[in-house]
Amino acid sequence: MIIAIDGPAASGKGTLARRLAAHYRLPHLDTGLLYRGVGRIMLDRGFPLDNVEIAQAIAENLDLADLDAEKLRTRDTGEAASVVAAHGPVRQALLALQRTFASQTGGAVLDGRDIATVIAPDAEAKLFITASPEERARRRFRELVGRGELADTADSYQAVLADIAKRDARDSGRADAPLIVAPGAVVIDTTDLAIEPAFAAALAAVEAALR
User: Where does the Cytidylate kinase domain start and stop, copy by copy (predicted)?
Assistant: First the structure.
């Protein structure tokens, strides 16, 4: 069984993906970490994020075992990931890795921006998790303040909201694998949902898809 979960930044898709993976005892892949990994390497080595050839080469040699989720959650890494993810050759380089993960025996849960449209279009269950830009910015803002990356000020929140708007435009407007709702996907808006009711809605959608 493959569960494909798409959605914009800070919509809650990662949290729901992890919960569903634990519930069904399936391996989980946050595909955004792949792009964060590429972006982080580009930043650390001083490469321009718009250098497609270098980004592609890094993507082709990326190892899942080297990805540290905690270290890749920083604000600058997220922005870098959004930039390199818009490069078609980078997405192509990571395609096989993601499809191999999805096709493993027993199935898997994957979340990202193009799981149900490109990576696993034949997934048994497809979810699209969303929330208002303002709520997603509040979530990311609280996370960054908690990590000590931002000051708890109105200006900082507005900066995060602007980042969210930029990423949404980049993710939805790119020519290669834009963020869209896949045919047959169940849309869950988590703007006004706490984690438990959001998980209940996601679980109900998966169970309905499996009937």
Answer: 3-204
Is 8 flagged in the annotation as binding? yes
Is 183 annotated for ligand binding?
Answer: no
**Tokens representing residue 119 in the block:** 């990576």
pLDDT reported for residue 64? 87
Task: For residue 14, say whether it is annotated as part of any ligand binding site.
Answer: yes
Number of domains in the chain: 1
The verdict on whether residue 172 carries a ligand-binding annotation is no
Domain assignment of residue 192, yes or no: yes
71 is in an annotated binding site: no
108 carries a ligand binding annotation: no
Determine whether the annotation assigns residue 15 to a binding site: yes
Could you report the per-residue pLDDT of 123-168, keeping only the tens digit for each? 999 999 999 999 999 999 999 999 898 899 999 999 999 999 999 9
10 is in an annotated binding site: yes
Q: Does 205 reside within a domain?
A: no
Confirm whether pTM is higher than 0.85: yes
Question: Which residue range forms the structural domain that includes residue 111?
Answer: 2-200
Q: What is residue 53's predicted lDDT score, i.e. its pLDDT?
A: 97
Q: How far is CA 110 from CA 4, 75, 143, 154, 173, in A?
A: 5, 22, 22, 34, 22
**Has 11 been labeled as part of a binding site?**
yes
Query: For the domain that residue 116 is a member of, what is the CATH number?
Result: 3.40.50.300
What is the C-alpha separation between 186 and 209, in angstroms, rounded? Answer: 9
